[in-house]
Amino acid sequence: MDQIKVWIIEDDKDWLxxxxxYMGGQNGIEVTLASDDPAEVRKSLLSGEYSVDVVLMDIxxxxxxEGIVLAEETATATGARVIMLxxxxxxxxxxxxxxxxxxxxxxxxxxEALPAAVRAAARRESPISPAAAERMREEFRRLKLLEMxxxxxxxxxxxxxxxxxxxxxxxxxxxxxxxAGRLFVSIRTVKNHINRIxxxxxxxxxxxxxxxxxxxxxx
Length: 219
Description:
Layout lengths: L3 E6 L3 H12 L4 E7 L2 H10 L6 E5 L7 H13 L2 E6 L7 H6 L4 E4 L6 H9 L7 H29 L2 H11 L4 H8 L3 H15 L4 H10 L4
Parallel strand pairs: 1-2, 1-3, 3-4, 4-5
Helix pairs in contact: 2-3, 7-10, 8-9
């Protein structure tokens, strides 16, 4: 079986030396580039003279998340599989790393898992690490909450407080006649309010509109 050619990009020189020695000592793995300098990596990419299957890329390079940009450039230029390396303190960059083309995300302290991650990546079957998967779930939950808040605000901006009160009464099971009596208005007025609400929300009926408002947390 051919050697898996690996690049290691890491700005901590001691960690870089240690990781090169560790990975280079693994059966079937060959470190073909080790660098702490993004400029050097870009020079290799521009030359077109590279031999790489998997890249271990530190997210933080010299105090900046340069590894995210470099990961995208490297994956695009070489077709290599990129595994991001980071510490737990940098977890907020996980989604950006995957958006940039990374296929996995490994915590540095768990370096003993790297050989298996590299081999899986080379086979094009690398699963996302548990730590990365959890961070992604947290981010997706956050994005879902933001989406829900946006939809709630959009509906709040569409309907008036009196129309919202009308939807509450509909949700509580009141008929149009009962609503007219409670609000001291004519049934015609109630019908007109309901028609305006349905037109604004694009709902098929008053009960559906009331259910939508309730589901979005307006009451």
